[in-house]
Amino acid sequence: MHTFKGSWFTFEKFWTWYRRNWRSTAVSSFLTPVLFLLALGFGFGSQVQSTALIGGVSYLEYLAPALVVVTAIQGATFESTYPVLSQFMWQKSFIAMVATPITPAQVLYGQMMWVGSQLAVRSVVFVIIAVVLGAAAGPGILLSVVFATLAALAFSAPLVAYSATLEKPDGFTTIFRFVLMPMTLFTGAFFPVSQLPDWLVPLVWLTPSWHGIELARGTTFGTIGLLPALGHIAYLAALTAGGIALGVKFFNRRLAV
Amino acid sequence: MGRVENLVEAKALTKHFGTFEAVRGIDVEVRKGEAFGFLGPNGAGKSSTMRMISCVSGRTGGELKVLGMDPGTDGPRIRARLGVVPQLDNLDTELTVRQNLQIYGRYFGMSRQKCREKAAELLEFAQLSDRADHEVEPLSGGMKRRLTIARSLVNDPELLLLDEPTTGLDPQARHLLWDRLFRLKQDGVTLIITTHYMDEAEQLCDRLVVMDGGRIAAEGSPSELIGRYSTREVLELRFQPGAEKPDLERFAERVEVLPDRLLLYTQDGEHTLAKVHEHGVRPVQSLVRRSSLEDVFLRLTGRTLVD
């Protein structure tokens, strides 16, 4: 079977599930941006003085494009952990799939297409809500959807590969606490990275969220140059590709035994 | 004409997991239209063999041809013509019964229209039409099993692989399942079944191999195997736990000593029982029965099949 076709049929399974269960996910993709923007943008932001460091814009506008990115990465983290492990261990749907012409690699591609499309939809909803609430500084914020999805995939792909190696879900809690949480808080979404101690900054550069935030905020305010933008995109694409390559290896190891 | 077509041919087939040798060089041929069984206890290498035949797991050594092709290079093409019923159900439990069938059809590249038609037909076959649009999760074990079998038929497979198809089911659900499998056999589908239930093997299999410790201990039809490795009848004598068991070697062709009973292999069980009584032996309970594959297995391996 052609690779794309096989991956597409895998994707269709997720889509069938979504058609039955979209209501429950819709609530969270609607509520997350509303709550974040209200609490941090309007509430907390009302107490924050705009400075030259954040370009003299309101804190709400400063925050909005970055929030699209970090919430996409959070969503990607959940999509790439328990549901993936479940399809190996509890639901075993991946095992059912590879008994057909579908290959382990196609299962992975379908899974990644699913994560990507889910996060794209969530990001679109986020941006619409940001526009409605007056948190959008300009039309450039629309591009946040693309960069948030890309950053989410760049984190998701290695994480899906990692999930494929686990026999129990204990490792996930560590990732939520010690990777996701600090990455959400300290990679430039809520305050400029220049406020961090110097030794920490190179570590921030490694995170997909920092690159995603630089892109989303930079295009929203028109402050990013073409070359840096391409650099960020290349880094995120490389993380995604590397994660997928690892994923193919681990999916094969797990499913073809 | 006259040439028997083999759907599976294995020669010196082996499978290792690290240093563990799950399958240690087996030769197997499965002919078109037959129901072929792998009988053996847990850990005998049955499931590993099945996974190699179903082109999911690669072989470590030896030769394997399925539908005339090499699983190592033609996996997806072979799998397109196989049906697989795994040992553990792997249905999409959050989807409906019908959706499970339709989605599975899509994995084989069938059109949506074709998937809808096939699903309706298989719902009928699995006697699940009235549950078609219910979620899978709350179904009984027997229903889930029937759905799994129905799902494996979505691509009209030439070869159906069933790994422990009735393990964990109550007797009624088992008989219903066996009935469905008989129908498939009548329709000309070739079946390969692994089981550790001898009654299942006797009911379903035209031919089988007894596996133990990754090797094939014997091969033949159930009646051939019984004829070759056992006597016509068996006299079972049960004694008080812990009681010393009498030496009755001279009354039977062969005696097996189990923890709680003696098995006397003989052509005429009632006659042997009378002689044992004459000898003054008073078991708590006695039973005369025909030999089964269980006895074949005991003879071949010195162990019982199901503990």
TrEMBL record, chain A:
Pfam family, one: ABC2_membrane
Domain of life, source organism: Bacteria
Source species taxonomy: Bacteria, Bacillati, Actinomycetota, Actinomycetes, Pseudonocardiales
Annotated transmembrane regions: 21-42, 62-85, 119-136, 142-162, 174-193, 233-251
Major location category of this protein: membrane
One BP term from GO: response to antibiotic
Protein known as: Transport permease protein
Topological type in the membrane: Multi-pass membrane protein
Localization in the cell: Cell membrane; Membrane
The keyword Disulfide bond is annotated on this UniProt entry: no
Molecular function via GO: ABC-type transporter activity
Presence of keyword 4Fe-4S: no
UniProt keyword list: Antibiotic resistance, Cell membrane, Membrane, Transmembrane, Transmembrane helix, Transport
Family designation: Belongs to the ABC-2 integral membrane protein family.
GO cellular component: ATP-binding cassette (ABC) transporter complex
Domain ABC transmembrane type-2: 24-254
From TrEMBL, chain B:
Membrane-protein topology: Peripheral membrane protein
Pfam families with a match to the protein in the record: ABC_tran (PF00005)
Molecular function GO terms recorded: ATP binding; ATP hydrolysis activity
Assigned keywords, A-Z: Antibiotic resistance, ATP-binding, Cell membrane, Membrane, Nucleotide-binding, Translocase, Transport
Domain of life: Bacteria
Location of the protein in the cell: Cell membrane
Gene3D superfamilies the UniProt entry points to: P-loop containing nucleotide triphosphate hydrolases
Any one Gene Ontology cellular component term annotated for this protein: plasma membrane
PANTHER family per UniProt: ABC TRANSPORTER ATP-BINDING PROTEIN, ABC TRANSPORTER ATP-BINDING PROTEIN NATA
Protein name: ABC transporter ATP-binding protein
Organism from which the protein derives: Lentzea alba
Lineage per the UniProt record: Bacteria, Bacillati, Actinomycetota, Actinomycetes, Pseudonocardiales
